[in-house]
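PT: before anyone asks, these are the final sequences, not the draft ones from last week. 951 residues across everything. Please model them as a single complex and drop the result in this thread when it's through.
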Amino acid sequence: MAKDTKPVEQVDSVIVRFAGDSGDGMQLTGGRFTSETAVLGNDLSTFPDFPAEIRAPAGSLPGVSGFQVHFADHDILTPGDAPNVLVAMNPAALKTNLRDLPRGGTLIVDQDTFTERNLAKAGYDANPLEDGSLDGYDVHTVPLTSMTLEATKEVEGVTKREAERAKNMFALGLMSWLYHRPTDNTVSFLERKFAKRPEIAEANKRAFHAGYAFGETTEDFAVSYQVKPAKLRPGTYRNITGNQALAFGLIAASVKSGLPLFLGAYPITPASSILEELARHKNFGVRTFQAEDEIAAVGAALGASFGGSLGVSTSAGPGVVLKSETVGLAVALELPLLILDIQRAGPSTGMPTKPEQADLLMVLFGRNSESPVPVLAASTPAQCFDAAIEAARIALKYRTPVYLLSDAYLANGSEPWLLPDVDAIPPIEVDFTTEPPAEGDFQPYVRDDETLARPWAIPGTPGLEHRIGGLEKQDVTGNVDYDPENHDLMTRLRAQKVAGIASDIPELEVDDPDGADLLVLSWGGTYGPVAAGVRRVRGDGGKVAHAHLHYVNPFPRNTGEVVGAYERVLIPEINLGQLRKLIRAEFLVDAAGFNLVRGLPFRASEVQEAIEAML
Amino acid sequence: MSEPNGNGAQPKLTAKAYKTDQEVRWCPGCGDYAILAALQGFMPELEIPKERIVFVSGIGCAARFPYYMETYGMHSIHGRAPAIATGLSVSRPDLSVWVVTGDGDALSIGGNHLIHALRRNVNIKILLFNNEIYGLTKGQYSPTSPRGKVTKSTPMGSLDWPFNPISLAIGAEATFVARAIDTDRAQLTEVLRAAAAHKGSAFIEIFQNCNIFNDNAFDFVREEKENRIHLQHGEPVRFGAEGERGVRLRSDGSAEVFEGDGDPLAWDAHHPEASPAFALSRLTRDTVGATPIGIFRDVERPVYDELMADQLRTASEQREGKLGALLAGGDTWTIS
Ligand SMILES: Cc1ncc(C[n+]2csc(CCOP(=O)(O)OP(=O)(O)O)c2C)c(N)n1
Ligand code: SF4
Ligand SMILES: [Mg+2]
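LR: through. Structure below.
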């Protein structure tokens, strides 16, 4: 492409949001822009925000799909609160996204879509491009659709509709010029994606180049911007979403434990992509079983665990509810089982594509009787990889079901991931019992002194035939037993076993450079926005400490000490105060909450304000 | 791990070897005892080392079964045994996996798992102990109780139309469907033998007398043996004390019983179409006062477990699973 002749401005970070109709290919556009940005070496964080409906009526408000990407020359923690640049492909996208664009922000709209019909569908009485309502913004009205048609008119074998659909590539080309993104990968991506229809690939490439060239030549854009690569830790990086990282983490746990991975799952947003990703890696011996429902999914996983596999089941709230009885069975059987809950907004079906953190008390307590289960929570998209391995390690070592919580924000959001050295990932030792005892019968409920775990003898092992079940078992022998004292003992043993995991997990780290009086305690997927809010407070001279929990049951062993050491504790959560309830009950600490339940991640600025209100 | 542990050269076991040290806790006179004895008697014939046999059950009287079998076993939760057994069987093709379930367990709370296991043709053998009642919860009607059944939960008679387990299994695309009677050990063993030899899911309904809450429910065939329509592959379908009655198909495909001379259906359990088996399954106590026992259907279809194993094999032949390469797939960049 031709050399730029226009002035170039350096900026340290930019937030771009692409918004359009569900059929406009905004997720693809955002994904490509992200890849270009990753290759350039910026730090980045993304947040796709799309409707649950596959194709809501074209041009309607519920049909708007968005993708936000934040990139910077330094390390960043979130996809950003508000975009600097909004690309709106139609009036509905403008209407639903404009409120997030600060005055003075850059607005790029496809003026061709601002027809009377589309304006009416979006609920505009007057054309906002003409009525002065956009005066405070840096507006660029671009005839995106007609220029795309013009650019592609000579490509043979492409219908007008197909040509028009390349307009997202025109927009991508324009944005690539505006922010100096490398273009080669997108060109080869288009060739790969449309390999079966080279004429479509050609139309898309032409639209992409035309968008880039338009940026160079039009007077509408006077400057372009450069964001230098970030100084990240040396190494090889890739961009990764939370769900992809979970899938890879499960495969890594399988490789490192030597146990075949068995995934039982029933499709549900936002967990399905884990099933889909794992189904592509059967070459690792991964068995994916799309069950008839969530109960069967987790049942099959438990059956596989009984047989010596790493049994895993993935779902979201409405499906996790259905698994409760089987998780309780796994508690009684004391077999390893991993359940991943990719939380979404509820109750009931709620808002399937939107994040929330409100399943915490359900996974802790949503089973009959005393039924202790370890609970872990992932903190960032890339951290999902480590979280999956750690959850598997605990399940296998302690012969227990383990819940790992993620959410829709981590699942679909992405960030650069410094690839781990796979040889440095520690092995997960699994010690099946293989020999009958020297004397007497095999005792399936005798316990390891240190972990309190029971032996795991899998079918196929001669001399260790035994029966297990959900009826209360006698300590040591595992025989059915209704003795009152035995039940009390077994109840306590099961609880102690899970509580004892605290000695096997890292202590809670506190980030407190200035000796603050206020501790912010967060957990799970809010890590990024909360850490960013804390940074902002400190940037303004405020003193605040921050600790983030990756383990919610048991808590890290120093948690009581940490929360007791501060005058005030603030717990931000995307629920009405579930961790707060636990911390108050467990440690008698008068923690305050900051709670917003909108189906949206926190904005760093909101966390900042909440902290500052307590300083 | 999928290597069989036994080498097959073990001495032949006896029924006694399959008894556990647990006290059997069914009511005296319960049909479950006879079925347990038949299973324990049959197991040595399997010639599979004990450690490679697994019994998985749900909840109910019948579901206590695994505690009494000296093999691996899991007494799980109500209705879910087919799902649990699916995960076990698919991940461990070297095992012989058996499911024991009741009419409530299999057809009420677990109906969904049953039909899906059957249509997938998972390599599990499902024994449904049908006593037409909820035994363990002390006598409420079940999905196989005849309409109008008076029980504690239906003092004026039950309202729902019952399932016919054989029709249901055939409709669910089962590849092996059979019926047996608890007290007819020889015939039960014959069916077990065929089920064990069958590749894929086998479904066996066993008429089981619950002498406490539903005594004599199956007397019409259990006691009155002349009402047993014994299905034998390749043989004409005749029954009655002297074989004086026969079964033939009408021109519309439905089955009828006729008396005396006539041209009975020659039974073909391997018929590629399910409709003759389905037609015979409609001959019941309620319709003709007699009912078939034996093998309704025994056909071959790819086994889910094997299909999955094939995919895994193909995938690893195409590309060896290397963790480092997996993680570094896609666009990467390097910072020095
Ligand atoms: C989730 C759940 N619901 C209800 C029950 C109570 N329950 C136990 S066994 C049973 C019915 C058993 O009937 P069936 O399957 O026919 O077995 P049978 O006792 O007759 O052998 C019921 C309703 C339970 N254990 N679990
Ligand atoms: S209640 Fe009926 S089915 Fe249950 S053990 Fe007693 S006789 Fe057998
Ligand atoms: Mg019953």
